[in-house]
User: Fold this.
Amino acid sequence: MKYINLAAFFLIIFLFMPLCAPADEIPFGTLKGYKNTMNFSVWAPTKDDAETIAAGLEDYYSRFLKDLECGGMLKKKPRVYIFGNYQDYLDKLKGLGYNVEHTGGIAIPRSARKPAEIYSFLGDNLLDAVLPHEITHLLFKEVTAGLKTDARVPLWLDEGIAEYEEKSKRYRTEVKGALESQALIPASEIVKYSTYPADLNRRSLFYAESASLVEFLLAEYGGAKFTSFSRKLVSGGKNIDEALFSTYYPRLKDVSQLNDAWLKFLKK
Assistant:
């Protein structure tokens, strides 16, 4: 009888383990909820919060793979920390050495030793905008760079795919307005930015146009070609014209043709 009870005890412990964070991995005292899924480890203020966020992340991960027409690529399971409010987010991240004022969340790519991390806080836009945006930065780096942790994604491509994957597609309104007022930044200039524009209005337009360029490439030529093009830019050693030519020839041979085809796409 004792052996049966002991076996039952260990069975209960085994079944319960996936629902709880290991004691030595509880990162912050305010994050009591934990959910471990196939692709993510999530900490949040409550168990319900963690389960809702984890389900949203898994759904987004599937949509991302479908958009880019590629298979799973995560080398290490990202850790996602969602605080209860903005102030707690600020305080805890300051303690880690990060200045996150005026941000909705941050994504920290994985290193050779540590998994990728995402930090944010509960809010109306968390699942529709913030997490899709931040997770995209991590996933896209995995897709395009693989094990090359030092590879850099061009700024327009990095922010463009992240903005595109937000559910609202709010960038479309801004691009439409800029097109009508003849205020669009040429694609040849967008792809050259290595730092964010200092002017806030121009920065906002940079984000919107980058997302629009990504949408154009995906809509017109498909996810597989877009993924191939992106890999050539990030880890393949090709410049923008070389990557366009080798991926989209004869329809796109260089940035000038990209700009012309994108404008026709917008005017449709």
